């Protein structure tokens, strides 16, 4: 009998401790003024995009002006000294939101507990090269880094693959990190989306805040399909379709598409280096919208795992229009697809199917 009483008393004491502990934590969450830091991995951090993106992240461009960050920077041994230089500059910039920098050539140390992984590391395309030329080198890197992320990153880590071939690298990463939810692995087509917006803005002399809902379908390559059929512009007399305001179907169906598809190559030709500041900015846009949500009535383009929407083969990483809420993306459903669009969407899907089998042949 006495034993039962002691057990009851012990249980009451334990429950009271648990209750007060929860209460203190709850009150603390209101009292503390600063959020816990988010750990952001940037691979290839000593490279061009790396150099452009790390100050953006440290300034709050990616996660918001109230979100402290700890940067994890990874590069390979030959770039170790340059990587250390980037770390020194980050320290010298004294960013208020930057709570720490881990600069390393050890992939395990780099991936430890990261919440967001921006995968930029790889070999970039040079003038005259096709993405397929860099396939072999890059897919092996993504196979190896998949394992490190799977074992050492935070369980809910969101992954954005930037390095080319971006869709197929993301697919390889997904296949070799089976325990990372497929919803958490994406690739960058936001740069193409922003490029499409840029072309429309120039043509209409409009402001970026007034144009929305362009779409990039498919591969981040010259077969991608930039689609303006659902895009709108806010005017003084209400929302209008981009196609109506541009009033030049010939331009929209030919030069506009070709310009967006070839923009990466045009930048490489001009700079002798691939796009870096616009790629870094687009990667920040991609993560910001994924984490913080897309504005109501607005979608963005993201390379995501196909669930068969719009007749696209399931299991490809394909760029779709998506909305984001509470850290989750969903493919926009029910858009009307005309015959012209259908052909272009299928052509870029077919290229991804070919890339997938080429990637697997490189890995064998
Ligand atoms: N998706 C897009 O919209 C988009 C846009 C622009 C560039 N890119 C691609 O992004 C990638 C990076 O471009 P960049 O201009 O910064 O190239 P870069 O050559 O300047 O930088 C790449 C960095 O990756 C490092 N690296 C190589 N192997 C690595 C590995 N195994 N682990 C970690 N780091 C490694 C290199 O040492 C280098 O510092 C390229 O593949 C490029 O084609 C994609
Ligand atoms: O085309 C490239 O390799 C560079 C990059 O993907 C880009 O679109 O700017």
Summarize the structure.
The protein has 364 residues and is of the alpha/beta class. It has twelve helices and 14 strands.
Based on the coordinates given, report the CATH architecture of the largest domain. Alpha-Beta Complex
CATH superfamily of the largest domain: Lactate dehydrogenase/glycoside hydrolase, family 4, C-terminal
Strand order of the largest sheet: 3-2-1-4-5-6
The largest pleated sheet is described as: 6 strands, parallel
The oligomerization state is: single chain
Measured as a percent range, the helix fraction is 40-55%
Average pLDDT, rounded to a whole number, is 94
Structure summary, number of beta strands: 14
Tertiary shape: globular
When the domains are counted, the total is 2
CATH topology of the largest domain: L-2-Hydroxyisocaproate Dehydrogenase, Chain A, domain 2
What proportion strand? 15-25%
Q: What is the helix/strand order?
A: HEHEHEHEHEHEHEEEEEHHHHEEEH
- End-to-end Cα distance: 70 Å
Task: Please describe what this structure looks like.
- With 364 residues, the chain is α/β, with parallel strands linked by helices.
- The protein folds into 2 domains: 38-187, Rossmann fold (3-Layer(aba) Sandwich); 190-363, Lactate dehydrogenase/glycoside hydrolase, family 4, C-terminal (L-2-Hydroxyisocaproate Dehydrogenase, Chain A, domain 2), CATH 3.90.110.
- The chain contains 12 helices and 14 strands.
- Strand 1 (38-43), helix 2 (48-58) and strand 2 form a beta-alpha-beta unit.
- Helix 7 packs across helix 10 (255-271).
- It is globular, with a radius of gyration of 23 Å.
- The mean pLDDT is 94.
- The structure holds nicotinamide-adenine-dinucleotide and (2S)-2-hydroxybutanedioic acid (LMR).
- Nicotinamide-adenine-dinucleotide (NAD) binds at residues 43-44, 46-50, 74-76, 79, 120-122, 124-125, 141, 162-164, 166, 188, 191, 220, 274-276, 279.
